Structure formats: C-alpha cells, structure tokens
Amino acid sequence: MDSVYRKVKGFLLQKQPCEANPLNASILQANSSLNSTGNFGSINVRLPKIDLPTFDGDTTKWLTFRDRFVAMIDSSADIPSILKLQYLLSSLKSEAALLFEHTTLTADNYATTWAALLKRYDNPRMLVRDYYRTLHHLPAMHEGSVDELAQLVDEFTRHVNGLRKLKEPVDNWDTPLTTLLFFKLDSSTILAWEKHSSASPKDKYSDLIDFLQDRIRILRSSQTLAK
C-alpha cells in the first residue's frame, strides 16, 4: 500500500500547481498576439472546473455517461488506474453505485469494475427497448405552459437522438414519431401546427421539432416582454 500511496501522491504533486486532478481548473498557455519586438506574448487563460459525469442507472443516460467518461478518464494514459477507479466510483449514483458498494480501491480493480459496468449497461438491444418504451411513456401536456412544452420537446428529442445513436432508422420514422408526439401536445399547440403546416403533404418529424422550438422561443420571449 505504501508504494501505491507514493505513486498516487507523486502523480498529484506532479500535476501541481496547474491542476490538482485532470478535471480541475488548469492554465492554458496561449500565444495570442505579437509584441513590439515581433515575438508572440504568452497569456495565461484559467479554464473553469469540469465536473465528472454521473450515472444513476437510468439506461437512457448511459450512452452519454459512457462516452464522456471514456473521453475524460478512461482513455487518459496520464491517470493511474487507482485514480480512474476513484473517479468511476464517485461518478456512480443510486442503483449503479450499489452494484460496486464494496469494491476495494486498488489499481487492479479498475479494469474489472469498468468491465462489469459495461456488461451490465452497455447492451444495445436492451438500450433500444428502453429508449423506445420511455419515449412512449413520456407524460402528455396538461397545463399547456411553455415550460411543460419545453420539457416534453427536450425529452422527446433526447430519446430520439439516443435511438439514432444506436443506429435505429429514426430519420425514416416521420409518421410514427410525429403521431406519437401529437398525442402528448396540448390542443393549442396542435392547432398552431395545423395552421403552420396546412400546405405540407405530410407531417415531417424534423419540421415539427423546428416548429416547436420556434414556438418555445416565441412564447418565452412574449412572456419576457409582458413583464
């Protein structure tokens, strides 16, 4: 354990003072402009702290967590395995954290813990089912408020984008997706869409989303002006 401690301590000290860990604020040296002698001057730019991604077992959020964790931590050759495991365990919440509650913090356990997490959640077949099921069960609007509309549109597009990332042919699903979304919209929004798209031969999902995003922006802008 002493050798592991010294290794970790040495790694952290080596990173000082620019960064206490790979995710904390760092100093970026940038050559930005010529000075009077024709040489480039060096400017220190302090970057903001980047928080670790978290994962609580919600399968519709797995892809985002996996990709960000790999990019920030797993793929880094500069981070010792014992620190990667520490970052991984601290990123897991709720159900996902319980799976590894008794994991010992050792370098050898990082690879096995990450592999176990992938085995549990990195299942495209299961993910497609979960995205599609959750998409169908998104709650319909009741109040007709702009916040309710924005939340519905954000969640709907998030799940469709997840299906697209899993190679589902969502770009060919205009009728299924628009019809499903119509079931969840309030009557005034549907009426506004009917007026907007009356000349269109069919409902296109991308057009509907663009219309809804514009409607959200206009409604929020009008609320601001009315204050």
From TrEMBL:
It comes from the Eukaryota. It holds the Pfam family DUF1759. InterPro entries: DUF1759. This is Retrotransposon gag domain-containing protein. It comes from Anopheles stephensi. The lineage of its organism: Eukaryota, Metazoa, Ecdysozoa, Arthropoda, Hexapoda.
